[in-house]
Amino acid sequence: MPTVSFSGVLIIALVAVAVPVLLALVRRLPVPGPVLEVVAGILVGPAVLGWVHLDASIQVLSDLSLGMLLFLAGLEIDVQGLRGPLGRLAGWAFGGSVLLGLACGCVLSLAGVGARPVFLAVVLTSTSAGLLLPLLKDAGQQHTRFGQLVMAAGALAELVPVMMLSLLFSATSRTSAGRLTSLATFLALLAVIGLALGQVRNLAALDRMLDRLEDRSAQLRVRAALTLALAFAVLADRFGFASILGAFAAGSLVRTIDLTGRAPHPQFQTKLEGIGFGFLVPVFFITTGVQIDVRALVTNPVALAEVPLFLAALLVVRSLPAVAYIRLIGRRRAAAAGFMQATTLTFVIVAAQIGIASGQITRTTGAALLAAGLLSAALFPAVSLKLLPTPATGVVHRDPDPAEAAVRPGPRIRAAQAHDADLRRRVAQQLAVPRDQEVRGVRRGNQDRRAAAGPLAAVGVHADRGGSRAASSYARRAATRAGGSRGGVPGPSRPVLSR
């Protein structure tokens, strides 16, 4: 039995811990965590330091991490949000991206790039929705119309390329009819399983059992979700597709059934993200950096020249259709949405692995494509954030919103509103003057009563603490009656108890 070493896994785990620490210490570093993880994998891999080499243990962890990453990506897609007007607008823009992707793929293929045109078109139309959600949260745009539009476009640009990649380049069937038949059967089976699970999920007894075992050591809800992801991945492999399609479909199904149900558990998605982003997903990104052949990229001038070409193609294919957003969110925000849509990394990594294995691209072209994806994830979000409001300053850098300008009041309405505000201010001042006079009158009455109590004390009347409290109570009741006579709010009448 061959000896399995976990020293490489330990180094990868240490790198996974060091990357967020570095981002926390250097807060001005405008680079997402996955980009640094891939770069760190390049440094510890065979291309630079040679500390980590791809072995059986790392390969198994990387495959599990890839499935978990696609499961979480499906978990982030809001299928209901794609049915509204924002989803339709994002769909039209994505259709333009498909046409531009086919055109750029043909041009790059004719220019001598070592990749098939259709494969390049699928890769260029992708967007990493998982990278966009943290950016929108940090910018305070998650629940705005701009944020919902960007997330709808990102979800669509992640769902369709995954299906096209599985259908065209990872299916084992050689004919198009066989691939379509396999895909239709697979999707029909997923629909039947989803409907059955949805009916079972509505059972009150099952709901109570899930809630009872969720916060205990059983963690039944988390176990069931991960088992479903594994089952769908195996099912997709049995039908001749890549396992990522099954994991992605499982994530979408879990979101539809559980997270958008009657009473979703508040910590369910947090626990799944803790398992994924806490360990498995960083392993995938670091392992991807370990596998990148940087020496072949640096020593090949043609491959180096392909990097800016791919980067420019990503910007054209995904940013140019954002022109359709101008009427809804304005020019600046449409430009910011275009840069966010051109941000891609996760799908590029997955597609490069499948493309190299299926012969769609060469190894050097795959390395250039990965480099372009890294640059897009490092540069495009920083540019888009310059066009958005920051949480610290709250300054919004955008053109006037056409929808807001349509309902903006005219000069006469603004003058009437200012007159009403001034009138309300004057009435409030006039009402405040009698109240001040009332308070001063009560204070003056208290002073007179204390002055009248002085001669009584000289005669020999002893005012103990109880007497002081009674006097204070008498003064408060007198002030209350005085306030009622002046139009104030009278207090409750109580009988005066004599000592």
Structure explained in plain terms:
By secondary structure, this protein is mainly alpha-helical. The N and C termini lie far apart (100 Å). The protein has helices at residues 7-25, 33-44, 56-76, 85-110, 117-124, 129-138, 145-169, 176-201, 204-214, 220-238, 243-259, 268-291, 294-298, 301-319, 326-329, 331-341, 346-358, 363-386, 402-406, 411-459, 465-485. The radius of gyration is 34 Å and the shape is globular. The chain folds into two domains: 7-406, Na+/H+ antiporter like fold, CATH 1.20.1530; 411-485, no CATH class. Helix 7 runs parallel beside helix 17 (346-358) and helix 20 packs antiparallel against helix 21 (465-485). The protein is built from 21 helices and no strands. Mean pLDDT is 75; it is low at 391-408, 455-472 and 482-499.
Radius of gyration from CA coordinates:
34 Å
Q: Into which percent range does the helicity of residues fall?
A: over 70%
CATH fold-level label of the largest domain: Na+/H+ antiporter like fold
**Global morphology:** globular
The low-confidence runs, each spanning 5 or more residues with pLDDT under 50, are 391-408, 455-472, 482-499
Strand content: under 5%
CATH architecture of the largest domain: Up-down Bundle
Helix/strand order, N-terminal first: HHHHHHHHHHHHHHHHHHHHH
DSSP E strands, number: 0
The helix/strand class is mainly alpha
First-to-last CA distance: 100 Å
Quaternary state of this entry equals single chain
Question: Count of helical segments?
Answer: 21
Class of the largest domain in CATH?
Mainly Alpha
Q: In this structure, how is the largest beta sheet organized?
A: none
Total domain modules = 2
Mean pLDDT over the full residue set: 75
